[in-house]
């Protein structure tokens, strides 16, 4: 999921998984979160599907002649939000399952 950074200039939405993890993991470790929980939940940092700004998403919308791929009335109301939520949810569930299966949780 994207991370919102606060600074003197205002808020900035970070749409990079690596930047989100680099910002959140040290904070999670500092407050005592078990590293196994952090690793099992790492897929949740994926945020490209939330805002339709990724070039392949925009290209898919432009190339679709049937009209089924679209950006709705609201910015986050688009054709990629449900597949993205399903993918992240399933990945997190399997991360927790694998972490428990291998004895990390």
Automatic annotation (TrEMBL):
Principal cellular location given in the protein's record: membrane
PANTHER family: ANAEROBIC C4-DICARBOXYLATE TRANSPORTER DCUB (PTHR36106)
This protein's name: Anaerobic C4-dicarboxylate transporter DcuB
Keywords, sorted A to Z: Cell inner membrane, Cell membrane, Membrane, Transmembrane, Transmembrane helix, Transport
Keyword Acetylation found: no
Domain of life, per lineage: Bacteria
Membrane topology note: Multi-pass membrane protein
Sequence similarity: Belongs to the DcuA/DcuB transporter (TC 2.A.13.1) family.
Gene Ontology MF annotations: C4-dicarboxylate transmembrane transporter activity
Keyword hit for Chaperone: no
Annotated source species: Escherichia coli
Record's catalysed reaction(s): fumarate(in) + succinate(out) = fumarate(out) + succinate(in); (S)-malate(in) + succinate(out) = (S)-malate(out) + succinate(in); L-aspartate(in) + succinate(out) = L-aspartate(out) + succinate(in)
Transmembrane regions: 80-104
Gene Ontology, cellular component aspect: plasma membrane
Subcellular location per the Swiss-Prot or TrEMBL entry: Cell inner membrane
Gene name of this polypeptide: dcuB_1
């Amino acid at each position: 999921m994207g991370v919102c950074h606060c600074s003197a200039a205002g808020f900035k939405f970070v749409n990079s998984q690596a930047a989100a993890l680099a910002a959140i993991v040290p904070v999670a470790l500092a407050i005592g979160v078990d590293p196994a929980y952090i690793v099992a939940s790492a897929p949740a940092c994926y945020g490209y599907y939330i805002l339709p700004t990724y070039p392949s998403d925009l290209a898919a919308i432009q190339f679709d002649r049937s009209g089924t791929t679209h950006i709705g009335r609201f910015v986050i109301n688009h054709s990629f939000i449900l597949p993205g939520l399903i993918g992240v949810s399933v990945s997190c569930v399997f991360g927790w399952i694998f972490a428990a299966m291998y004895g990390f949780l």
